[in-house]
Amino acid sequence: MSFDQEWSELKTKARMRLDSVSTDPGGTSPGGADLILRYDDMGKIGHAAFLLHQHLSSAGKHAQSHTDAAAKSLESEGFDMGDALAKAEEGWQAQLQVLVDACAQISNHLDYSEKSSKQDDHFIAAQIRVSKISEYLDVPPPTPSSDAPHVPKADGPIM
Q1: CB count, 10 Å around CB of 110?
Q2: Whole-structure pTM over 0.70, yes or no?
């Protein structure tokens, strides 16, 4: 099978699949896929993650100075509890940092995903527009008896 035949078949199959896709934004696709990207939803989740990050960063540390002071006081009085309290505070701060970092990652990833998805959408739309223009670039080769000037066909991708 030649490339042109295979390409033609693939385009036909793609057209048939696109024709069968539901235009209802609330429905699911025929193949059972139900992932629909809504930029507003991504923005709300990203904003919530950002707010949680901000709140955890400050609220999670509000007792740190008091805990450190209590641990030092207990340790100076000879209680083993002082060292244990200091280690518990270190563990708390480590886990808090993991949670704060996770919130930041969620927020940043959703921002990146939204921008990247929009760029992909623009690129695909441009490719579709270019493919329509490319149909008109199939210039027939000049015939020996033709007086028309030769118009060279574009090489490579049209961008």
Answers
A1: 21
A2: no
The 3-class secondary structure across the chain, one letter per residue, is CCHHHHHHHHHHHHHHHHHCCCCCCCCCCCCCCCCCCCHHHHHHHHHHHHHHHHHHHHHCCCCHHHHHHHHHHHHHCCCCHHHHHHHHHHHHHHHHHHHHHHHHHHHHHHHHHHHHHHHHHHHHHHHHHHHHHHHHHCCCCCCCCCCCCCCCCCCCCCC
* Calpha distance 50→27 (Å, rounded): 30
What pLDDT digit, counting tens, does each position of 82-141 carry?
999 999 999 999 999 999 999 999 888 887 877 787 788 888 888 777 766 666 665 555
CA dist 75 and 70 (Å) reads: 8
Q: Contact at 8 Å (CB) between 56 and 106?
A: no
